[in-house]
């Protein structure tokens, strides 16, 4: 064997060992530089060609080129081996197939929205239209047209946010009764859900922004029995088939007679006792209702002798608390994912 061949063979022995021992890509790169780099061992050998007799130089060049090809192929192979090895090691480290899978995060319809949609669906099935109205209303729509003149004490109860002397954030959805009757001759049958605002201090039962749904039916021959029937049906739809509905005499300037509406407590099913939800009464209060006051009908140029109507206004957070057995109304605005997930 020529001397060059001896040198190359000895060099390959060391190269093979170095490549086999390289634990990572950096070490492998160092091996490449040491043997094949600009001042690496092979380059030095190549420089030695100049000293050979001219006749031997081409053969020597070929031998070195062939050796370089083999070394480079070995490096590439080693690189691949290290990369796969790392990947397998990572896999072995990270994947525990017995670990519970990560469930995909899914959005859901907000509980208040669901109550609203279900009420609307119920009334639409019975021929009512769903209409939405402005959240800023003149006092005429909020009070005057609803039979609450400027000096009437009932105005105080609404704890309104006034924006100007005559413009306010609506404290109830009842203004939509007025807008509906202004725009349509009887018969009218609408439900109008939406946001309302009151100067209430926030606690477990109060928010300063909340939702109501108003209902209005005016036609010939409408009486209190129709109101009871529709609201009882609504409660059964929302809370289940066993719900009873109770009408307690009450007062609202825009209805006569007026009532507050209670439903069987869905937690104790009316048993009362020590029930935390209803305070032991067996009943939960949902909102107000009544027969539309003749003054309101007349203000709308409706013939109060020829038509009559009922109206109701329920708080949606109130309905949702009962429906989902929620202990604090603030949960509906805090929107904790865990809370919403439970109700989804
Ligand atoms: N607007 C009343 C409130 O927010 C609730 C109400 C009572 C609405 C009687 C009505 C009704 O339509 O007839 O307190």
What fraction, in percent, of the residue positions are helical? Answer: 40-55%
CATH fold topology of the largest domain: BirA Bifunctional Protein, domain 2
Total strands? 10
What is the radius of gyration? 41 Å
The amount of beta strand, in percent, is: 15-25%
Bound molecules: 3,4-dihydroxyphenylalanine
Q: Main sheet?
A: 7 strands, mixed
CATH class of the largest domain: Alpha Beta
The geometry reads as rod-shaped
CATH architecture level-2 label of the largest domain: 2-Layer Sandwich
Kindly report the spatial arrangement of strands forming the biggest sheet.
1-5-6-10-9-8-7
Features:
about 350 residues, alpha+beta, BirA Bifunctional Protein, domain 2, 2 domains, 7-stranded mixed beta sheet, 3-stranded antiparallel beta sheet, rod-shaped, binds 3,4-dihydroxyphenylalanine
Topology at a glance:
Layout: H1 3-21, H2 25-36, H3 41-48, H4 57-94, H5 111-125, E1 129-130, E2 136-138, H6 139-142, E3 161-162, E4 167-169, H7 175-183, E5 188-197, E6 209-219, H8 224-239, E7 245-252, E8 255-264, E9 283-292, H9 294-299, E10 308-315, H10 316-324, H11 331-334, H12 337-343
Parallel strand pairs: 1-5
Antiparallel strand pairs: 2-4, 3-4, 5-6, 6-10, 7-8, 8-9, 9-10
This protein binds 3,4-dihydroxyphenylalanine (DAH).
């Amino acid at each position: 064997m020529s001397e060059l061949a001896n040198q190359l063979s000895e060099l390959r022995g060391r190269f093979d060992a170095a490549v086999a021992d390289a634990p990572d890509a950096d070490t492998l790169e160092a091996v490449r530089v040491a043997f094949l780099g600009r001042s690496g061992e092979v380059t030095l050998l190549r420089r030695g060609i100049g000293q050979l007799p001219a006749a031997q130089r081409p053969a020597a060049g070929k031998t070195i080129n062939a050796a370089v090809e083999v070394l480079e192929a070995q490096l590439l192979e080693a690189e691949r081996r290290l990369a796969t090895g790392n990947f397998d090691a990572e896999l072995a480290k990270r994947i525990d197939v017995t670990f519970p899978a990560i469930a995909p995060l899914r959005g859901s319809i907000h509980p208040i929205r669901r109550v609203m949609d279900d009420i609307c669906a119920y009334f639409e099935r019975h021929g009512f239209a769903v209409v939405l109205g402005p959240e800023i209303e003149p006092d005429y729509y909020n009070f005057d047209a609803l039979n609450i003149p400027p000096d009437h004490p009932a105005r105080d109860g609404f704890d309104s946010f006034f924006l100007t002397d005559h413009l306010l954030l609506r404290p109830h959805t009842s203004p939509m009764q007025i807008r509906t009757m202004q725009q349509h001759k009887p018969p009218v049958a609408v439900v109008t859900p939406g946001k309302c605002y009151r100067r209430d201090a926030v606690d477990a039962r109060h928010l300063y922004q909340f939702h109501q749904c108003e209902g209005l039916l005016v036609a010939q021959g409408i009486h209190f029995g129709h109101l009871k029937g529709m609201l009882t049906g609504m409660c059964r739809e929302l809370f289940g088939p066993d719900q009873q509905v109770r009408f307690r005499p009450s007062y609202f300037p825009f209805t006569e007679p007026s009532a507050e509406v209670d439903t069987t407590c869905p937690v104790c099913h009316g048993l009362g006792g020590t029930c935390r939800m209803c305070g032991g009464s067996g009943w939960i209060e949902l909102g107000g209702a009544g027969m539309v006051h003749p003054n309101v009908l007349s203000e709308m140029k409706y013939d109060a002798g020829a038509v009559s109507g009922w109206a109701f206004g329920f708080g949606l957070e109130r309905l949702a608390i009962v429906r989902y057995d929620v202990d604090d109304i603030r949960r509906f605005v805090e929107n904790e994912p865990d809370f919403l997930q439970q109700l989804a």
